Amino acid sequence: LAKTTQPISMDSYEGQEVNITCSHNNIATNDYITWYQQFPSQGPRFIIQGYKTKVTNEVASLFIPADRKSSTLSLPRVSLSDTAVYYCLVGGIDTGRRALTFGSGTRLQVQP
Amino acid sequence: NAGVTQTPKFRVLKTGQSMTLLCAQDMNHEYMYWYRQDPGMGLRLIHYSVGEGTTAKGEVPDGYNVSRLKKQNFLLGLESAAPSQTSVYFCASSSRDRKNTEAFFGQGTRLTVV
Description:
The structure holds 2 protein chains of 2 kinds.
Chain A: E1 9-13, E2 18-23, E3 32-38, E4 45-50, E5 53-56, E6 61-64, E7 70-75, E8 84-91, E9 106-111
Parallel strand pairs in A: 1-9
Antiparallel strand pairs in A: 2-7, 3-4, 3-8, 5-6, 6-7, 8-9
Chain B: E1 4-7, E2 10-13, E3 19-25, E4 31-37, E5 43-51, E6 54-57, E7 65-67, E8 73-78, E9 87-94, E10 103-105, E11 109-113
Parallel strand pairs in B: 2-11
Antiparallel strand pairs in B: 1-3, 3-8, 4-5, 4-9, 5-6, 7-8, 9-10, 9-11
């Protein structure tokens, strides 16, 4: 399974853009990159998924360079409610990497 | 549409007791997962299933057993509970769609072993 490395924690202020980078050096050709958000006492929630280049939805953007060995989750204009733990996962159905494994995640604290 | 439902939400066990956690999903998903999350830590995969009648070990399978007799249900059993198994347990499910690995999680079961 592809191992991921993320910063343990990040701090930001309301209204700022936050970028969280994840390293996944041994990503396989058919692996997808997926990000989840988790609030205290809740299960993780899917944010965004991508394979290459850039993906954007109503919540975030995901930037993936050509070599796909890293990815960056971008949260535009964060608010206090974005305070959570963010997890980067790498895997895919085709590769048989069906075991979704979570790393330690990045704890984002948004200040007023 | 209930999504993923875990039963029970809270439980206190004495050391050595056994119990079964039930996970039910109504999204016709092929894949189901059981995780544990200790305070301040990330989720660790216990067991998972890629279809009815099949299960596989995850990162921390010792002390747990699972069964997937029906597609919509995934059971997690503790045969002889230990204080080290005090944790919050999450169940999740996802489809077999190769382009969509989004997993849906239950609300969690908070288990305390005394």
